Amino acid sequence: MKKLILPTILCLFSSPSWPQECIQGDCDNGEGIYKREDGSKYIGNFINGELEDGSLWLLLSDEFHDGNESFYLKANSVEISGDYLYAVDLSDYKENIGPFNAKSVTNHVQIECSQSRAKPLNILAHKLSMAQGEILSSTRELDLEFDWTSFDENERGELYGGICGIADDYKTDPKPNVIFKEVNF
Asked: In this structure, is residue 87 part of a structural domain?
């Protein structure tokens, strides 16, 4: 059974947890990665120890593929548009994977909550961990189109279902939220 860290997202709404340690690069004056206590990571440019420009990746699960893959959701990436959600998620691997020898993969995904299904719109394979470094491959470049996959058939289905639940709550009671970027319903 995979350990779900989705409840951590709910805690983020009410009490911010700031970075705990620099795990890579120069987090004072340069590019770096800060790891938060909850496992989420800030990635980007730092000036005088402050994140100047970058991204927050929220840790959702660290137990995919027997702990060899961690799964993140990009903060403020979820768009609600009619019956669909659009989000950016990230798989970060302990070992390089696939034909492109990628260390991480970002997935731009479309989620249809009412049908409990999702499909990738574009997948990017990255040379370095946490969507850093050269983009090794893009499904747009390969002209691939994906079919819908039900949550029951998708290893991330339970997580996508949780995001749908948060979106439903948000539609009825909008509050400041770290996962939503834009809402058009």
From this structure: yes
Q: Torsion-angle region of residue 67: left (phi > 0), alpha (psi -120 to 50) or beta? A: left
In this structure, what token pair is assigned to residue 61?
A: 């699960």
Rg of the Cα atoms in the chain:
16
Structural domain count, the chain: 1
Confirm whether 24 is domain-assigned.
no
Write out pLDDT tens, residues 13-66.
333 444 478 988 999 999 888 888 888 888 888 899 888 877 888 888 777 767
**Boundaries of domain holding 120:** 59-184
Partners of 84 in the β-ladder:
81
| Predicted TM-score (pTM) of this structure | 0.78
Is 152 part of a structural domain of the chain? yes
Full DSSP string of the chain:
-PPP-HHHHHHHHHS---EEEEEEE-SSSEEEEEEETTS-EEEEEEETTEEEEEEEEEEEEEEETTTTEEEEEETT-EEEETTEEEEEEEEEEEEEETTTTEEEEEEEEEEEGGGTEEEEEEEEEEEEGGGEEEEEEETTTTT-----EEGGGSTTHHHHHHHHHHHHHHHHS----SSEEEEE-
Average pLDDT over residues 92-118: 92
For residue 33, the one-letter residue type is I
